[in-house]
Amino acid sequence: MVRIALACLAALSLAACTAGYSGGVEPIRGSITYNGQPRTKLTKAPIGSTFEHTFNDQYGRPVVETYRIQPDRSLLLIHRYVRIEYF
Fold first, then answer.
1. Beta strands 75-82 and 50-56: pairing type?
2. Which of 63, 60, 52 is nearest to 28 (CA)?
3. Is 4 helix (H, G, I), strand (E, B) or coil?
4. Which N-terminal stretch is annotated as signal sequence (predicted)?
């Protein structure tokens, strides 16, 4: 009985942690999906393909993000890194 209660509690806790989050990386200012999905859809790109988007963050550092095209043609941000430039 205790095991069942603990299993239910664990399942509810996990569901609460992932509610409202679609996976991937959370967008930041400058991300393509920062204010939601873009209005235009990538109709010619194959589903599942990836592409990179580069922009400067609020500190002027170059940020590179990788997006994957989902089956509904929406974009999923799957990876982000800050490019370190040595002068």
1. unpaired
2. 63
3. helix
4. 1-18
Count of residues for the chain?
Answer: 87
Q: What is the DSSP letter of 74?
A: -
Residue 22 has pLDDT above 60, yes or no: no
Strands of the sheet with 75-82, listed across from one edge: 50-56, 62-69, 75-82
Rounded Cα distance between 6 and 34, Å, is 37
User: Which residue is listed with tokens 């400058």?
Assistant: 30
Quote the CA–CA distance of 79 and 54 in Å, as a whole number. 12
Instruction: Read off the pLDDT band of 87 (50, 70, 90).
Output: confident
Evaluated on CA atoms 27, 34, 51, 48, the torsion sign reads: positive
Whether the pLDDT of residue 12 is over 60: the answer is no
